[in-house]
């Protein structure tokens, strides 16, 4: 289940979302063109990524900030930027440009701290904007739980686009992160599940004052749980399981051993 887009255009240009995407892409391009060997790249990650053991001893505190703009590969970067593009514009529209930037950075810092708390002695460097973006998703869930999100469902050879409420997609995503965190070993690397889960919760908490200021449940009733703009409607083409054409057979011929 992979989100493709939402149906809710922003009321104003999301300059901060575009800026964050540009900075993340620029840093990634700089890293892959400068640190051209695995050894150099590992040193780069260790210096600027979150190393919980270092932070536990009060060292490299700045990595809580710098790690938010590093990525471990193209797909890591592309996935994070897609999520930021889908969920960030409406939240920036609701908050305003500078408040949204502060919200994003605070969510990322909170996600990083929770990741350190989950494995304080780990020496595995952690990089990525996903903690901050998880905060954006948590804020989006609180403010716009019934916004429509298109997801791509992939089941082996079956591909289909569905439009579902945001609370289903984001709720399933959060549950998967929490379950993944229960079985994760912070000393072996992999997905930073607790950074995702923590960032999501921090984002909701940071957004709570804005939600209350808008009226809380009254805000949901007024907006129907969606951004206060007309929805964008997309036309879908049907997606079905590919079928192989059946070969014609002479009515008197016998089927082979695998025939029917």
From TrEMBL:
Residue ranges occupied by any Peptidase S54 rhomboid domain in the UniProt entry: 60-211
Keywords of the record: Hydrolase, Membrane, Transmembrane, Transmembrane helix
Topology versus the membrane: Multi-pass membrane protein
Domain of life: Bacteria
TM region positions: 15-33, 64-86, 98-118, 124-144, 151-179, 191-212
Compartments in which it is found: Membrane
Annotated Gene3D superfamilies: Rhomboid-like
Tagged with keyword Signal: no
Molecular function as annotated in GO: serine-type endopeptidase activity
InterPro entries from the UniProt entry: Peptidase_S54_rhomboid_dom, Rhomboid-like_sf, Rhomboid_protease_S54
Basic residues compositional bias, start-end: 243-253
Assigned GO CC terms: membrane
Segments of this protein annotated with the region Disordered: 230-260
Protein family according to the UniProt entry: Belongs to the peptidase S54 family.
Full protein name: Peptidase C54
Organism lineage string: Bacteria, Pseudomonadati, Pseudomonadota, Alphaproteobacteria, Rhodobacterales
